[in-house]
Amino acid sequence: MSVDILMPALSPTMEEGTLSKWLVKEGDKVESGDLIAEIETDKATMEVEAIEDGIIGKILVLEGQESIKVNSPIAILLSEGEKLSESTSANEAKKEIKLEVQNNNENIVKINDVKDKAQATNIINEISNKSDYKPIKQDRIFVTPLAKRIAKQRDIELSSIKGSGPFGRILKIDVENVAIENSYNLSAQKIEHDNFEIIKNSAMRKTIADRLVKSKNEAPHFYLSLDCNIDELLKVRKSLNFKSNDKYKISVNDMIIKASSAALIKVPKANASWENENTKYFKNTDISVAVAIEGGLITPIIKNVQSKGLLDISINMKNLVNKAKDGKLQPEEYVGGSFSISNLGMYGIKEFSAVINPPQGCILAVGSGEKRPIVINDEISIATIMTVTLSCDHRVVDGAVGAEFLSEFKNFIENPSLMLL
Amino acid sequence: MTNIDFDLIVIGGGPGGYVAAIRASQLGMSVALVEDKHLGGICLNWGCIPTKALLRASEIRHMLDNLNEFGFSVSDIKIDINNITKRSRKVAAQLSSGINHLLKKNNVKVFEGFGSLIKDKSTLKKISIKKNDNVIIKSAKNIILATGARSRNLPFVSADGVNIWDYKTAMTPQKLPSSLIIVGSGAIGMEFASFYNDLGVEVTIIESLPSILPNEDNDISNIVKTNFEKRGIKIKTNTTLKSVNNKTNSVSAETFTNGKVEVIKSEIIILAVGIIANTEKLGLENFNIKIDKGHIVTNDFLETNEKGIYAIGDVTEGPWLAHKASHEGILCVENIAGRDNLKPIDKTSIPGCTYCRPQVASIGMTEAQARSSNLNLKIGKFPFLGNGKAIALGESEGLIKTIFDKDTGELIGAHMVGPEVTELIQGFSIAKKLETTEHELMHTIFPHPTLSESMHESVLDAYNQAIHY
């Protein structure tokens, strides 16, 4: 029995995906569990495993094909020794050609076998009569006279036009549509040659665009900035890492994740998302951390940060970052989250404001820690300062709540031992 | 879940409604049709068909008047207007009962009564059917409004059936008047003018626009004008009716032409000044159904802004023609049935016919419209005077004009006046639908001797290849 390999649903909400890469080819033997293809969803690239043993009989979708509906067949898996079923049309055509070739061979054999000259002539005549009628197998293109003329005038190949008339007949309007498309493509190509390179947007790129546009359109953003002195935090980090024997390395970012969680527990009103009819207040602190990856970014989630220690957070984060860079995050690892952090400190960015990751209520934009002169007790001294900016969705988080959160955050950052409580 | 009575209810049994109902039934829907007055609608009962029966009579009268040309002589020809109208009514009645039979054959349930929409919270569509004081309620998944239109009155004068006639009275006169004024020179006005003139009535046409048959090509309109005037019909264009003084046995109409006032006296005046859609009492106000200039607004597939409620025919945007209504009915139900590859109606390819003598038929753009569309044109003209069959028939007056897009060879308009042109126009309709160019039309073999050869010659003339002209 041949089995259709279907487009899998890689997340509960997935409706369609792109087949980004085939890892097998037709004729390959596969065992259950073998990776056969990579599928790109709106968020990540994932691998598809064979569910049964067998041989890849036919690949039905091309690499790079987009918008493949979930549960539509992408390949046919055959059991060993089995041939493709006759209903497969592409196969049928091949078979026809084979048959023709076979017939010709038969004829040749016949001639060789014939002894009588007259008989041979007859057979030769018969064969040549047959071969006189060799219909050229060229599909007739149905086209109206007007469409045909306009296509010729505009130098459009009829075979490139899809007809919308009865039985696919090409109508005037079909030619005109192609002409419009062509002129558009031509001008696009011209620009590319002149100045740009045009790269097709990936599913992820489009999702980022959709979500951020939605966020900026729907969520009324406001921004709160605060300077944090991180000298104490750096000291604590140094002593923690000093004892690690290179087994672990706690980053400033790990500590920011922890501090954010601790502040959210203190100010639970900031740990919320907008749901039109309701506002959802989260009990756990699931922190989404923006990670730059090839072609975009993704926000893997560290869950239940409130019950995790720094080491746990650090290991967790490294693991997620690696998976994200390989495009292997599972949906549950990036869908959801109650609060986001975006850290551009490593690029030397002093401060910036981030776009909220909907439906969450807040995102914290973290700048670099740098030595700045500060005034303490009317005296100028030097401290390592990190500026953070909180973007809030005003529908969920009011100014006072955001400010309260930030001051708690600052308190934890400047007094990191409080995080131990 | 309440039971649904029908997949589709059609309100109105005219050429839009009954055709939609039959097609829906063919597509497997359970269908009901609600009709208040008469199956077949205005077209069949008080429009297209009975007027054709009347015009047949007036054509015969015209022929009788010219019998000597064919070698006959008769004397003592008598006209009985009552027998002429009786035949017209008989023709209409025969066809109306035919519609009843067709609907029955196609399992369409017919309800007699006035149908109107009822607002309901469910997604079902409900209508009430009122007959006398009896009201029943029926529900359906989809509703088609095909309630048609009626003739328009003017603000200062309404038909009274005595001296001021609408089309109905004009179709069933008790006696022939000695004189009448016809207000409006569209198809209806022109047909009555031709009919009454041929029966010996003194006719005056009043048209507010610069030419009669204002929707037709100028060349065509002028030929009809010349013909009518030769027959003694008075034509007053650029003339508006100001008031009508309705006396006991006559009317006097005050008209206004280029600043000049004139009072025209006549026994009867016929109002043929257009139509108004029947949108009242349908319960439309309770729905999100848009009305623009009195007509229901629909999308390309005849659906109103209210999902599941459709409108076709004269109650929607023009042209207000029976064949357009029927075609919309078919498109509408095929779309409801989920047929794919449907195309909206191309309004540039709806032929129009006027059955006055000489007949007028046209499709597509007039020369004036084509010239204002910035296309390069090829225009051909061929008079019936160059056609053997027309001369043999004794009806060589008329012209066929064809208009092509010079660059693509697309036939963008065809305009005809003359013998049986209403039967000829379909040739150009097919040509347009199949998107032929001048090339296919030129290389089509037209049978000889026929009137249709004039169509061929007109195409040839557009490319300076006419043989007989």
Textual characterization of the structure:
The complex is a heterodimer of chains A (421) and B (469). Chain A is an alpha+beta fold and 421 residues long. Chain A has 3 domains: 3-78, RNA polymerase II/Efflux pump adaptor protein, barrel-sandwich hybrid domain (OB fold (Dihydrolipoamide Acetyltransferase, E2P), Beta Barrel), CATH 2.40.50; 145-194, Dihydrolipoamide Transferase; 205-420, Chloramphenicol acetyltransferase-like domain (Chloramphenicol Acetyltransferase, 2-Layer Sandwich). Chain A is built from 9 helices and 18 strands. Chain A has helices at 89-113, 117-132, 145-153, 172-194, 203-218, 231-242, 252-266, 310-325, 399-414, and strands at residues 3-6, 16-22, 29-30, 35-40, 45-49, 54-59, 68-69, 73-78, 221-229, 272-275, 278-281, 287-289, 291-293, 296-298, 301-302, 339-343, 362-376, 379-393. In chain A, the strands form 5 sheets. In chain A, strands 9-18-17-16-12-15 form a 6-stranded mixed sheet. In chain A, strands 1-8-6-3 form a 4-stranded antiparallel sheet, with no helix packed on it. In chain A, β17 and β18 form a beta hairpin. In chain A, α3 packs parallel to α4. Chain A is elongated and about 115 Å long. The two termini of chain A are 63 Å apart. Chain B is of the alpha/beta class. Chain B folds into 3 domains: 6-150 and 276-336, FAD/NAD(P)-binding domain, CATH 3.50.50.60; 164-273, FAD/NAD(P)-binding domain; 358-462, FAD/NAD-linked reductase, C-terminal dimerisation domain (Enolase-like, domain 1, 2-Layer Sandwich), CATH 3.30.390. In chain B, the strands form 6 sheets. In chain B, strands 1, 2, 3, 4, 5, 6 and 19 form a 7-stranded mixed sheet that branches. Chain B has a 5-stranded parallel sheet with strand order 8-15-9-10-11. In chain B, β17 (291-292) and β18 form a beta hairpin. The radius of gyration of chain B is 24 Å and the shape is globular. The mean pLDDT of chain B is 95.
